[in-house]
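Q: I have 261 residues here and want to know how they pack in 3D. Can you give me a structure?
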Amino acid sequence: KNRTTAARIRYAREAVKFGTKALSLSFLFNARAYEKNKERLRIARMTYQMETLPDEVYGTYDPDRPYVYVPLHLQPEMTTDLLGGAYADQLLMLEELRRALPDDIEIYAKENPKQQSFMREPSFFKRLSAIPGVRYLPPTIPSFALARKATAIATVTGTAGWEGVQIGKPVILFGLGWYMRMPGVFAWAGAQTVADALSWEADRGAAEAAFEALCKRAYGGITDKAYSRLLPDGDTDAALRRGVASIVSVLRSAPSPADPG
């Protein structure tokens, strides 16, 4: 309810601002500012559309049923549209997963909280509703609660998969996630992947050892200022330089196309 109200207020505010600029003919004097207002109104409208979906779109959450939790990705975004390959079509992921799962295990899918109506047109929900045993849950249900109760977690490359590793849940991975070689992560290859994931037993020690080994192979620096808040010293420029140096070292160590070795 709070999210819906916030989305409605934002949409109304942006509509008033844009309308005021349009009536005042401000686009004749500052076209750039006018276009920025127009874009903000477009984003506010799409957010509002996602937050006001009819109740019949959503299924009910039953924590006592066995289920695979599928947190949907924000789209468009590199983590899905590039690293996901064919599963940039997240409905394809749900369809294939449903065919491979036992009938008594449902799929609980939950929308990304940042998703707008773009990439979620009416045909998306029509196709989603045609997949048996899939419940599209409302955004009010906490993601971590869903992960805790899940039999397994399935994702393209999402952070929820890494969270699954940490809490000892088997993870079915459809894309190229950075944690894809961690214990308990199973790259999608059809029905056998489901069988392997559901029979897996968590080993905290093995997960910690694998993560430590992964960290030792990691390169220094950052490539996006958005991650600067994670830096202990706050020196964004130095971290970016280290990131560039790491990329250069990888490129220089890569074999040339003419070198078969």
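Q: Anything worth noting?
A: The mean pLDDT is 90. Residues 2-23 form the longest helix (22 residues).
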